[in-house]
């Protein structure tokens, strides 16, 4: 018997299979979050007199006992249960009888789903941010270590100006810092409580939505109950757009690595066990890890468009199309974690080629340095530019004996890694993860 059925079985197995689809596996990921939503809701029901203190205590004990097993990664929702909400309510009813049947008062499965998704995404964003910080710190460490190891810089894939591994690695560290800021915006939009919106039009019970907001550690609530339901799809799309920013950073760095590993460049190398070979070419050391990171991250970048297409032209209110959003978004987090793990593994084993710019092929990287040297001697910039251009055309150009590393902010001689680390620290403080953690710990303890 489903939660929405009355007295008779009216749904065919074929319809069940089609409408439920893959939802059970994604519901299992939110099982512990559904428990938390139930705990907060039951406390609120007691506060408005729909549950007695003893009934609420019985529900809280049963839910608290249920929580650890549902939090385990291997939890599987039974095939004969429609969704996680049905599973938990049925378990409560089996254990507590009539008291278990009271848990659903003043809500709908619609706002249950919304709460579960918000709690799930909140946690996933936090886990992702912490993983990104690990990668950020590794990049900063390597940037500092390789500050003065010079590297050709390119524009249009043509030789441009001298760069360094310190600048290159530090660039991706700062990119991750900005990605964290983008995720913070997604987190703030996600961290609003939709519980109490019911089926999208609120409840006639005198519910206390502020109470459940505080119990679940949300920043605030979705005040308008219609908008709480309209947020389904919007929250997922904004979150997807935020994680695509991370994916873009990893994909771009992977492309750089593929180029830098090539024999024509040879700027970096990796141990044999981290590369792959060819079945017929004995010399090959292929960058398969970076190619797959690039491909997986590019696939992640398509998710916001998929979500947008799924929600195109949907009017306000709930529609079953929205169920498919979980299939689009939820697996992307695990995929991104895998990519971060592999990127960190490769970075930790990267060998940088030193003295790259001693090769005569990179002589023209230093034309700007030569122009600047003439300007420092008093020559107008445009005249200096023409003079060095003439030397290049005539084949008489000689590169300066010492590259100009610079001391200003962001130059090779002043990477500003400490300032970038402070940026990251500021962005992390903006999430307020502690508020969420303390609220959930208090809910589970009491």
How would you characterize this protein structure?
The structure is a single chain. The protein has helices spanning 13-20, 23-29, 31-47, 53-71, 84-96, 98-101, 109-145, 165-190, 209-215, 225-230, 234-261, 288-300, 303-311, 325-348, 367-376, 381-394, 417-429, 433-445; strands at residues 150-155, 158-164, 192-193, 220-221, 268-269, 351-352. Helix 9 links the parallel strand 3 and strand 4. The chain is mostly helical. It is built from 18 helices and 6 strands. The strands form 3 sheets. The protein has a two-stranded antiparallel sheet. Strands 3-4 form a two-stranded parallel sheet. It has a two-stranded antiparallel sheet with strand order 5-6.
Proportion in β-strands = under 5%
Structural class, by secondary structure, is mainly alpha
Strand order of the largest sheet: 1-2
Helix and strand pattern:
HHHHHHHEEHEHEHHEHHHEHHHH
Briefly note the CATH topology name of the largest domain. Answer: Fumarase C, Chain A, domain 2
Tell me the number of strands: 6
Q: In the CATH hierarchy, what is the superfamily of the largest domain?
A: Fumarase/aspartase (Central domain)
Overall pLDDT score: 94
Count of the separate structural domains: 3
> What is the CATH class designation of the largest domain?
Mainly Alpha
Low-confidence stretches: none
- By CATH, the architecture of the largest domain is named Up-down Bundle
